[in-house]
């Protein structure tokens, strides 16, 4: 993943080793980072217990919102993939107790297949 891909919104997987220090205070004892996907400054991080959506706000990105979603609360998810003239895909996740889904815009190949695979693997049985 290069700088041009990131600026165009095509960023994909991020190395979890580089995120370990930032996420250490957010993790429960024994919880481990599995994979992470990024789009410019925002991240979708998968651990062995939950998914964390990271929204860096403002010009400097110093204000950060972390949304922790336990896998057991995910009721349904969908992805609208990018077409020939579309530049991005959209991920929607429905949580129990909420009528509206959480939506995140991903790049054309922002790890969509890998994200779907991880959600399917961690989905409640």
* Main sheet record: 5 strands, antiparallel
Relative strand content: 35-45%
Poorly predicted ranges (pLDDT <50, ≥5 residues)? none
Question: Residue-averaged pLDDT, rounded?
Answer: 85
User: What level of helicity do the residues show?
Assistant: 10-25%
Task: Looking at this protein, list some descriptive labels.
single chain; 125 residues; alpha+beta; five-stranded antiparallel beta sheet; three-stranded antiparallel beta sheet; 3 helices; 8 strands; globular
Characterize the structure shown.
The chain is of the alpha+beta class and about 120 residues long. About 20% of the residues lie in helices and about 40% in strands. It is built from 3 helices and 8 strands, in the order αβαβββββββα. The protein has a 5-stranded antiparallel β-sheet with strand order 1-2-3-4-5, covered by helices on one side. Strand 3 (about 40-45) and strand 4 (about 50-55) form a beta hairpin. The chain starts with a helix and ends with a helix. About 20% of the residues are buried. This is PH domain-containing protein. It holds the Pfam family bPH_1. InterPro entries: PHb (IPR012544), PHb_sf (IPR037063).
